[in-house]
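REQUEST FORM: STRUCTURE PREDICTION
Request ID: SP-0412
Submitted by: Lab K.M.
Chain count: 1
Length (residues): 229
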Amino acid sequence: MSNPMPKGRRAPMMGMKSGAKKGTFKRLLKMLFSEYKVQLIVVAICIILSTLAATTSNLFLNNFIVEIEKGIKNGWDSALPNIIKIIAVMGCIYLLGVVAAFFHARIMAVVTQGFLNKTRKAMFGKMEKLPIKYFDTHPHGDIMSYYTNDIDTIRQLVSQAMPALIQSALTIIILVAYMLYLSVWMTLIVFGAVALMMVVVKFVGGNSAKFFVRQQKALGKTEGFIEEM
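STATUS: Completed
RESULT:
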């Protein structure tokens, strides 16, 4: 006798308003920091250093161009020492950024895989305490999807989304400060264009979110059907 199909699969843990309980993201961060507090602090420092290296190099590039113009107009004897100095400073900054990015990627790989392993073990421990009725009323593929698709969503959040969010925020702050330093009016024009882009992205993203929910539900049903065959 085949198992009765559930009315519907719950949405993945992250990014689904209908399935995720309030405070899920906060609990996830609490679990992450309780296990890898030191590593995450080092990662945050590496992200800050790599972001500063990527953004502040533009300031030295501007000075580099100015010194070249001086060398063309007034001769290279006075401009060459400054050019060499700027090149050396830029090289050190880029090297610092590369080293910081390497350690950031290396540490996050260890943190992500370790956290996912512990999360799967915790989920399995909780699932062992569930009554038999739960497994009789849920397809095996749907249950397996918790350990594959939903855990993969957490992996993307921890290893990609969170570091990218911090890096993007720092980049925006540094660039806005530099833009205001150069020209206030040009900065206001850029802000207007960004506001227009945000409206478009919100419209497109809001309409595409429901299709992502449907995709995850269909994926769970498909895996359940395949597992039951």
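NOTES: Residues 1-19 have pLDDT under 50 and may be disordered.
Reviewed by: T.R.
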